[in-house]
Amino acid sequence: MKLRFSKMHGLGNDFVVIDAIRQQVDLTPQQVRFLADRHFGVGCDQLLVVERAQRPDVDFRYRIFNADGGEVEQCGNGARCFVRFVIEQGLTDKQEIRVETKSGVITLSAQDDGQVTVNMGVPVFEPARIPFQSDSDAFVQPLDVAGTPVAITAVSMGNPHAVQVVADADAAPVGVQGPLIESHPRFPARVNAGFMQVVDPHHIRLRVYERGAGETLACGTGACAAVVAGIVRNLLESPVRVSTRGGELNIAWAGEGAPVFITGPAVTVFEADIHLE
Ligand SMILES: N[C@@H](CCC[C@H](N)C(=O)O)C(=O)O
Predict the structure, then answer these.
(1) What residue ranges are annotated as transmembrane (predicted)?
(2) ipTM rounded to 2 decimals
(3) Ligand 1 pocket, Cβ-based, cut-off 6 angstroms
């Protein structure tokens, strides 16, 4: 089967993006892993599949797959690339787009300066809905990471995040603790592990060990999760500039019950065809 795809990125969090409207696409987890493989395939952190809307009140549906082949609920950098893709591919001429994801409908708007803003929805702190096994709904909770006590904020941005505050993002134990937190038994759906350094109330530095992809150069939902965690912990004030290894995102959140807005770039690198077994 011949598959047309675009290679895109948002701050170096990279994607293979596939139009499943004009071509027949039904990928197996093995094919997703092959496309994501940086040595034997194309290479990406996540694969995005753009589909026709399944309901009248949205413009599209899009699906997100981690490099390990698992389908997930939400992706902040992917959402911005999705917008750039449907506009560049002539699939819409709208500047404001509503799209259905596995975790619900989000609204996205492309700006003239090349930036894209996404309304990522309302963050969820209720442990059962993250899902996080805990009897407490406190914003800061202890987590035993292979014998090391860590204080986390567990939050869902549609997908699950565990955010901890560190003194220095560069020195944070991302490679050691990241995989342990990702598969911690108290997160039954696994989790994205964020390491946030507070620079000042409007600026953080952030690294994220992503579920199903490992450490990425940037994580959009991770940036949203870190900022809301910092705000509920009275460490941050909206808006917040988030410095990742791939560049900068801007996050705005008016507080509990309000949606989180993420603004950042979305870039197309190239388009190509690949033959799949
Ligand atoms: N890179 C993403 C998040 C992708 C999904 C995540 N790894 C998960 O499993 O939830 C982003 O920019 O948000």
Answers:
(1) none
(2) 0.98
(3) 13, 45-46, 66, 72, 75-78, 159, 192, 210-213, 216, 219-221
